[in-house]
Amino acid sequence: MVPSFEALTREAHARLDAIEQFSDLGSGFNIAMRDLDIRGAGDLLGGEQSGFVNDMGIDTYHKILNEAIEELKEEIGGPALASMGIKVEESATKKFVQDCNVETDTEALIPDDYVQSQEERLRLYRELNEAKDEAGITRFDEELVDRFGKLPNSVQELTNVVRLRLLAAELGIERIVFKNKLFYCFFISQPDSPFYTSNVFTNIFEYIKKHPSTCKMNQARDKLSLIISPVKNVTEALKVLRDMRG
Question: Domain of 186: which CATH number?
Answer without folding.
Answer: 3.90.1150.50
